[in-house]
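Sequence and structure are no longer studied apart. As an example, we show below a sequence and the tokens encoding its fold:
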Amino acid sequence: MASVDAAVSAGGGRDAGALVRAAAPAARFVFRGRDAAVATVASALGTPLSLEPCRASQSVGRIALWLGPDEWLLIAPRSEGGLVASVLAKALGGVPHALVDVSDRNSALIVSGPAVEDVLSAGCPLDLDQAAFPVGMCTRTLFAKAEIVLWRTAPAEFRVEVARSFLPYVEGVLAVAVRDGG
């Protein structure tokens, strides 16, 4: 993902008001389940699963992003992927659920800086003002023509989860937005 850093640097990097960088490699799972499965996953993962729509929860380096009434994107350090899969499979034995490893399907970018809202608004139709999209909020949305999961991790920082096949496209749109100041 050096192309992200190079494209942003060519456009001004921090001087442009936003910085785009690759997120650390991660293990990712899409989990779907009802109450019993949700409680089981939260206990086994060591991270609560938010029941509040469009909210993230995290602890011990593990993240759960609410995507729907019975769906979460679970993220853990890449090195823990096998352990997380094993622990969840064992804990969920006999409990109706769906758990799919999507680690190789997605990549993530971190977009940060004082102009982060303007830069992301170049491709995202949502109101990204902190009053409308506070820290901890996450949602599945569009960025230009790519589906993404957007999570505000700090007042001036977002994590963008995107299908690996759309990553070069999203990088390009972000590089233009950074260069043009949003």
The beta strands are 19-22, 26-33, 56-59, 62-68, 71-77, 97-101, 106-112, 138-143, 146-154, 157-163. Confidence is low (pLDDT under 50) at residues 6-14. The chain has one domain: 1-182. The helical segments are 2-10, 35-45, 81-91, 116-121, 167-179.
